[in-house]
Amino acid sequence: MNLYKYVSEKINEKLGFNVNLESPRNREFGDFATNAAMVMAKSAGKKPRELATELVEKLRELDFVADASVAGPGFINIKINDDFIWQNATAPKQMENTAPQIIDLDYGAYNVAKSLHIGHLRTSIVGDTFNRVAKFLGNTAYSWNHIGDWGKPMGLIIAWIERHNPDLPYFSDNFDPNAPVDYEIDEKELNTYYPAASALAKQDDAFQARAQEIKAKFQDGHPGYFALYEKFLAISLDAMNNTVKRLNILPFDYDLGERNAAKYLDDVEEILRDKNMIYESDGALVINVKRDDDNAPMPPYMWRDSRGADTYDSTDLAAVYCRKKTDNPDKIIYFTDLRQSLHFEQLFRAADMSGIFPYDKFEHIGYGTINGSDGKPFKTRDGNAAGLDDILDMANDAVRERVAESGKELDDETIQSIALAAVKFNDLLHDVRSDYVFDPSAITSFEGRTGPYILYTAVRLNSILNKVQGAEFDVQKEYKLNADERNLLIQIMDFERTILSAFENRATDMIANYAYDLAQLINTFYHNCPIMRDDIDDETRAGRLHIVRVARDTLARAIDLMGLQIPSEM
Ligand code: ARG
Q: Are residues 396 and 526 in the same domain?
């Protein structure tokens, strides 16, 4: 049950007006508080305390209210009835939504022939959590992996391979797609081509021109280039799948990127031409997306580059067109690095002006950078920009060290899931938009606001439940709650509200912090409320086991929404 929602609706109904209800962290004076009497006093022609006293009388009539009282200048404190808490604290279920939305989420968006960098970590973690949360809240969410599989890098890579293996048949205009070619590419090596080629293109104009020419011909369907592309594409898609598995993110609903979007370019171009939106500029075709009220520079959106090739801009607009046709979403949300903000502002404007998709149904969530302790983008020990695998490896090492120090023995799989939880939880804990410092040692601590602490708490509850497995316990209609049990159940009843508000505010940190608060209350309960000890009577034991079950299910749900996995031991 969403306690806050229930209580506030019932109070509004009872009093006949909408009150502003708060749930103070410190519950010494009540579980909820309202300043309603102070707000309404004037219009009611009464003194705040006088009105508060009247309202308190009415509130006491509500069956879930144990007590209501006036405090200070006219605040009202409300305490919830223990029986009501006991009977209504249940584990969260998949929510029903009376106004579900279709939401397209664009995240991941990995690139062909480029190893995943640290930036892909945040888009994957945050995007995946929003996907899970959107679904949990009863929406229809589709995840789109807008793979970079069509643009400039393809030209550079093919040009690079041509330069080093000029005799391969792919480069001939008469390439025969049916003739076998004896040529294999290794993944590690493939990942070096793009950086090398783009560095070379910066110094060597002829190479740059060649890459652009190849890109244009490739996009026009040159059979040799295409066959070569298919070869490295397969390697990259495999690598992406491994990453998805390694990160434990939900499989993408669509692995359709730039290349797929390119199929819709002609349709979109027709719309743009109909609306007179395309014009020529320095040999390129562009769209003017400026507005009269702009006070920052707003460069034109690049429809075709000067060689007539498709661009990141054009395929992104075509992708919107495709999604509109495929899912007809109520919203499209993009998760990328903050530095792409201008691109998305341009895209949203172009889509809006062309009538393809309205501006106000787009959203771009730009995330900040993962830094080292020097405040600069995180680097590995040898001074290179860290890749996604480097980050995960470092977290793995840190967990392994801790586990060895503690004298425990955990298998590799467990260590990996703890390390992944450490990285993901820490990411979700930070405001999406802000930068944060990556400290492998701090995030893998088994205490404090960390992923391992959350998992440890869940493992602890599971181990209690495993011990009593199968045993039936009579859960009584009534049970006398002590303060630790009560606090825990109230937190459990705040789950739904937290998730709703985390989604509305696009704030994953609310989920992470909720999980931490819940874990703390669970551990306090665990320490203060023995369950299996001999002196515990049956009724108390059954009651506490029920609490353990509900708490475990609630924590497990939060853990799942964050994309973490509970190990069987820790
Ligand atoms: N592939 C791009 C990158 O790695 C991100 C693409 C984001 N999505 C989009 N529809 N533009 O930077």
A: yes
